[in-house]
Amino acid sequence: MTKIFDIKLYDKGYKELFGKITKFDIQQIVFTPNPEILLKTIEDEEFKNLLLKANFLTIDWIGIYLWLQIKDFKLFKNKKINALFVLLTMPYFIFNIFFRKNFLYKKYWERICWSDLTNDLVKYAQKNNIKIIIIDPYYPEDLAKVESQKNFRTNLLKKFPKLNFDFFIYKENEKNNIIQKIKNSKSQILFSTLWMKKQEKSVIEIMKNCNNIKVWLAIWSSFDYFVWFQKRAPKFLRTLWFEWLYRLISWPQKIKRLKRLYNATFVFIYKVFKKHVF
After folding, report:
1. Which of 143, 146, 208, 144 is nearest to 171 (CA)?
2. What is the pTM of this model?
3. So what's the architecture of 2-60+112-226 in CATH?
């Protein structure tokens, strides 16, 4: 069992996860916490409790393999001495992340990327004629996002021409109406893209009223790649685990992205190190 900040993470393989959630026999929630989310749970008990309602918590972050190696390093009984040697061994751990990926996959588990999971589930839904629901955030001040939402259905059908889906822009004042429409639909999969906490909260709220939905996912901006609102990193960069670098360079709000990257690396590693190593 793998825990970070008392959050139990799913530590099995991708194929096993995909097989479980596509049985459609019971309602199952998949949340994809990243370092930002896990850090937020330290100070936000409500958010932490939302995450704990999920059946599967799959962390999409290469740094998890740094933490797993640190956690398994128990050469000395004395914590301070052990921590010192962890610091000295850190370059080796980082080397493993970028150059021994298969070794880490075999020792721990395969990374589950929420964009890949979304893509595979949508393909599965199209192939098996399973209707899906997509709820997207309401950002009227973001004109590019508004334009993308206007063309969402047309652009998504260009990539998945036989996909049966409903698309809702999730406004608070229309929430009850949207939930009723979801309840009356024949959909079995729901994707929430409302971003941190809002997407998890929306899943829990809607789930109380909609027994027809069997698979619930909070997947950030995955659909933005499908409708060309954002361009995903080339496959060779994703294979090398440098997708974060591509996002940093291409993201228009670079300062904000730098802050998020800083929190996801230095702050997160420090907090994990402080709680679980010292």
Report:
1. 146
2. 0.81
3. 3-Layer(aba) Sandwich (3.40)
**Lookup: tokens for 86:** 């962890």
Show me where the domains of the chain are located.
2-60+112-226, 64-110+233-276
222 neighbors 249 (Cβ within 8 angstroms): no
User: Each residue of 26-85: pLDDT tens digit?
Assistant: 999 999 888 888 888 888 999 999 999 999 999 877 778 888 888 888 777 777 787 788
Our CA dihedral for 27, 32, 37, 39, rounded to 10 degrees, sits at 110
**Own/partner pairs, 110-113, CB within 8 angstroms, 24+ separation:** 110/13, 110/14, 111/60, 111/62, 111/64, 111/65, 112/10, 112/14, 112/17, 112/32, 112/58, 112/60, 113/60, 113/238
Look up tokens 């959630």; give the residue: 21
Residue 174 scores a pLDDT above 80: yes
Tokens 């909609």 — which residue?
210
Q: Which residues contact 250 (CB under 8 A, 6 or more apart)?
A: 231
DSSP letter at 164 equals -
The structure tokens listed for 149 are 């939402």
Closest CA to 217 of 103, 107, 143, 135: 135
**205-235 residues labelled b (16+ CB within 10 A) or e (exposed):** ebbeebebbbbbbbbbbbbbbbbebbebbee
Asked whether the predicted pLDDT for residue 211 surpasses 80, the reply is yes
